[in-house]
Sequence to fold (762 residues):
Amino acid sequence: MRLIILWVMALSVSMPALARTVYGKVLSDNDSTAVAGAVCSLQAHGKILESVMTGDDGAFSLQTHLKDALNLEISMTGFNPTSVIVESGGKNIDLGIIYLSEGTMLQEVTVTGSAVSEVKGRTVVFPSMADVKASPTTLGLFQKLPLAGLDANPVNRTLSVDGGSPVILIDGVPSTIDDFNSLQPKDILKIEYSRVTPARYADRGASGMINILLKKRDDGGSVYLWGRSATATAFVDGNFRGSYHQGPSQFNIYYVPSWRNYKKVFDTSDESYVGDDFRVDLRSHDRNPFNYFSNSLRFKYNYRPDDKTLFSATFSAGITTNKSIAYGETEDTYLGDYKFDRNSHGRSVAPSLDLFFRREFNPKNSIEAQVVGTLGHEKYYRDNRYLFTDGSADDYETQVKSRRRSLISEISYIHNFSDATSLSAGVQNTLSHSRNSYLQSDYEPILTENNNYIYARLGQQVGKVYFSIATGAKLFWVKNDLNRRHFIRNLTTVQANWNIDTHWSVQGYFQYFPSIPSLASLTDYPQQTSPYLISNGNPDLKVAENFRYRISPSFKAGKFSSSLYLTYSRGNNSVINDLIYLGDSKFLTQSVNARKAQSYTASLNLKVSDIHGFGANLNVYFERYEYAGDGWSHDLNSVNGSISLWWNKGPFTVSYWRKLPGKYLYGHVVGKEENGDALSLNYSPDQHWNFGVDWMYMFDTKGTKYPSWSYSSVNPSVKDRYIKNNGNMIVLSVSYSADFGSIFRTGKRSLNNADNSSSIFK
Fold:
């Protein structure tokens, strides 16, 4: 009896502790994407009982002991607040989907800058509403982000990190630059960025990583169309994306065309070929018109039966045609003056199927797998003709057909021991079979490749410091009819990040990675391309081994951020191009290993934004290069950078981007980076349309310029190319986007939504 009384007393004490849960999901009324960071406050009798913020998927959950009717207030910057009536009772209540309508930004409202933090070796950025509003394209948004080492080129619509192409992920799925350019800034929730290529992708020769996480979307769809064209130049780009979401399925179609037809392309060169008993000086002037037309078409299907599972299938079909014609005259001190005519054209088709799978078994364990199959066909024709004053002619032809079959497979496993410790490991394999047919001869080599990469990475958080170490083994087997090579090499990365306080952080890393030569560069198959020059592979080429060291302090406060990067790179057996004299007025060009190759880089990034609609982003680099070989050495100092300025007022945005080109040294050759600038005016009358006009290569009558010099004692030269079509180019652009999620959500709208302006509370 005493036990029963105690049990009843315990039950009566515990019953008031039973709470009911109120939960749901907050989406944007405009496009059905998740609204992350919205404040949800449960209120009773004018008092706040509990408040939470919505997660990345827009979900929220609150608990209360009260059984009375309650009021749920939801607010978010940039949206009109809304109220939801929570009925009385003791049961848990699912409010379903609650939609917020976008509000009008008042001029006197101050919008905070992009939220930037350093998390486990990555820079995480939540783009501010002001930066999104001032960006008609995703590329324009990336110009405004405080990401040191990143260059977003609005002329070519490309991204680069420290001069190389980064790994691009969208929601963690490997993607292309076309996928990136098909995104709209308003769809981006946050960006994860690193100048260090993750261990999983270290084998791909990429530079850095960008992972774009999108806002969650429920049923509905969207259409995005963008196009631009120059008014007086054959310069056309386009982008179309259509998407549709229904339950766990998402369907996407992409089409990205690009066309150029440039006539005013000019080359000048002064060069010499110098041998033991031979020297010839050449001065050439030519015109080199070219055109290309690329078409990228993709169909993508994503299936998410739950938040922990994703299956993605992408079919791509890319077709590219190109043609180049060069004609001019050469002053030749050995053969006399002559005219030349170079004609080359090609066509490539590369359909592929990409299958991707991700499964999170629990918060600690997840797995990803990917398989990509490609069938590539390419044709290339080149005819170099030299016409001499006596009426004779020399022809040097290269005609190649290539067919490539490849299968790339990968599996990756991630285990989180705790919030502070994680381990990932994976294996990748590339199998390929290529057949090159040289039509001017009977030579038809078959190239096979078996490329394996096995890696493991351990990450550990210790207080304010995050450490990671990654190591892997690259096993590479290649062969053709004439050559066979096997390589086994290590790849290692060590990284440390110290978040000192809310303003200061320091990063440092070491990286070792080999550069294995391609079989084509190893193949001994000479081809004569001019009266003096023969090109060939080098069977004795060694693997280049690269070492990189970097330290970087960063500072951020309010609307200002800055970072400094100091880098030292050294290469053993770095591969460069060199010439040697064969005798009988003939010279051989081929890849060789340099005795010394090292560089020093100091880069500074400064960003300020959201100052009455004004913002600026500056990148400045100082670089020193040093190369040496047998009997020669060269060094070079260079300063370069880029700057972005923008100002937004209502529907108008004015922006200016300029690249400050610097010089670079590669072996004997010094080149100057491509120049570029663009003054842009964009007008967005509503949430659907954007109209823009760009003035590119301002006050530059020569347009795009590509000067270079060679300090080789065998082949000293000074060369220059410029594309006059680009000079003072006026480009018009237009984009249209529409979201039609509202059509499909009528049956899902919560009946508890209350009119925000009502004065009667029921």
About this structure: Confidence is low (pLDDT under 50) at residues 3-17, 104-113, 742-762. The first helix runs from residue 2 to 14.
